[in-house]
């Protein structure tokens, strides 16, 4: 499938085969360190995907083990299957992206919190809880804070200072590098948070539920998010999710063990707040932590539907649930296929443009700027830079100085105008784009 735009940014930080791309304010270094064991010595995308697929499977297995003793093994197995067969999980599990790892960390953190709350003597549970929170903060510090808010509130109310210290230590350990980098490169933590909000279009009251629904047909990013909603068949599971989660909560209350279900529901709610109520665009991967946390109560609800009815009705309920899950799986794989086809085509376009740039003399060491410069530069083995926009990291004078020591090209869509400093550069068609090549 090739590497996507965000993957290029993360992988290029540790790759020996391409210069590092600009690292903007919202990003954290966790993914770069995660892929370093492979990306630091190999440029093989297939090898990187295989490594991440195996690692993501292991991560989900360990996260589910954190719930041992809270639910029967069959319920945990069903929860893992429900989460692992979502198209968005299958799509992003083998990718160099942070959201899946926030989801796995969140799932493990809530399970370990519940077990540590019930067993004061086992200190290993507190250590595991802190490490799970650190994993989330390592990948996306702000997501980690939103997700653990209910856990912190419960710990404060219960006056369990160990349960409060473990996530606090995890947040500090996981976000330390991000905070240090904020002061070293962005002028402070407040400035970095403000810059991150600006890049995301500004954070505030903005209901993005419809945007998320529009992205459910396999779009990796919906920004701006217009157009019609996907078909009802594609969206049905999304509306069934909160209903089944509510049934899971009712089952937990009936069995007099509400905390094991209500707490993951509360964490799922806070984890989804910034992406459902505070930004003006959508990407399906943003809600992966929500889906992981909801998988446990949903699996408990389905287990109840399969076992609670009287023996005479049980074959009917088993058949209906089985047919529903089979249809759900078919829809997930159909959407996954469309998402992969669409993404693969886009990434092949970048590879063709990079090859065309080589043919017109833009070869490493080189510099690209302009339209889609970051991913195309990675494919071409060039550095990337931009004078304006969210990824601005160079001045016009800096670009002009670079032309004296390496090939430089400004990219634009067909019919687009070159930037002012490139108006005298030679225009060259390159695989559906135009490259203005510096003399």
Identify the notable features of this structure and list them briefly:
439 residues; 63% helix; mainly alpha; 5-stranded mixed sheet
Give structural notes.
Helix 16 (373-380) links the parallel strand 1 and strand 2 (383-384). It contains 17 helices and five strands. The protein has a five-stranded mixed beta sheet with strand order 2-1-3-5-4, covered by helices on one side. The longest helix has 46 residues, at 314-359. Helix content is 63%, strand content 5%. The protein folds into two domains: 5-308, no CATH class; 347-437.
- Count of distinct structural domains: 2
Q: What amount of the residues lies in strands?
A: under 5%
Compute the separation of the termini in Å: 34 Å
Largest sheet: 5 strands, mixed
Q: Average pLDDT value? A: 93
Question: How many strands in all?
Answer: 5
What overall form do the CA principal axes indicate? globular
Which structural class best describes the helix and strand composition? mainly alpha
């Amino acid at each position: 499938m090739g590497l996507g735009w965000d993957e290029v940014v993360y992988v290029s930080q540790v790759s020996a085969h391409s210069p590092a791309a600009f690292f903007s304010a919202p990003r954290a270094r966790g993914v770069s360190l995660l892929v370093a064991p492979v990306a630091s010595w190999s440029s093989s995308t297939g090898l990187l995907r295989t490594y991440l697929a195996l690692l993501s499977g292991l991560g989900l297995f360990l996260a589910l083990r954190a719930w041992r003793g809270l639910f029967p093994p069959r319920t945990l197995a069903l929860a893992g299957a429900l989460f692992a067969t979502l198209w968005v999980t299958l799509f992003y599990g083998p990718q160099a992206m942070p959201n899946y790892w926030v989801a796995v960390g969140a799932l493990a953190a809530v399970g370990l919190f519940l077990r540590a709350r019930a067993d004061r003597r086992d200190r290993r549970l507190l250590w595991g809880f802190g490490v799970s929170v650190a994993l989330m903060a390592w990948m996306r510090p702000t997501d980690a804070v939103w997700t653990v808010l209910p856990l912190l509130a419960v710990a404060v109310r219960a006056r369990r200072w160990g349960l409060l210290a473990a996530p606090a230590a995890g947040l500090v350990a996981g976000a330390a590098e991000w905070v240090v980098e904020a002061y070293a490169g962005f002028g402070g933590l407040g400035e970095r948070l403000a810059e991150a909000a600006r890049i995301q279009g500004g954070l505030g009251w903005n209901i993005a539920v419809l945007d998320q629904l529009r992205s459910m047909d396999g779009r990796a990013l919906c920004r701006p998010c217009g157009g019609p909603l996907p078909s009802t068949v594609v969206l049905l599971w999304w509306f069934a999710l909160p209903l089944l989660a509510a049934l899971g909560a009712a089952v937990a209350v009936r069995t007099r063990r509400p905390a094991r279900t209500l707490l993951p529901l509360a964490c799922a709610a806070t984890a989804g707040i910034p992406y459902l109520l505070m930004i003006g665009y959508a990407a399906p991967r943003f809600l992966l932590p929500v889906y992981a946390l909801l998988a446990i109560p949903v699996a408990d609800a389905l287990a109840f539907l399969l076992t609670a009815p009287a023996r005479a009705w049980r074959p009917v309920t088993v058949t209906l649930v089985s047919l529903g899950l089979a249809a759900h799986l078919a829809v997930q794989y159909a959407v996954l296929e469309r998402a992969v086809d669409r993404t693969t085509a886009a990434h092949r376009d970048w590879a063709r443009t990079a090859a065309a740039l080589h043919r017109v003399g833009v070869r490493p060491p080189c510099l690209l700027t302009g339209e889609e410069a970051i991913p195309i530069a990675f494919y071409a083995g060039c550095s990337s830079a931009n004078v304006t926009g969210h990824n601005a990291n160079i001045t016009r004078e800096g670009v002009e100085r670079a032309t004296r020591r390496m090939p430089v090209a400004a990219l634009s869509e067909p019919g687009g105008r070159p930037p002012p400093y490139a108006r005298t550069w030679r225009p060259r068609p390159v695989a559906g784009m135009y490259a203005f090549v510096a003399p």
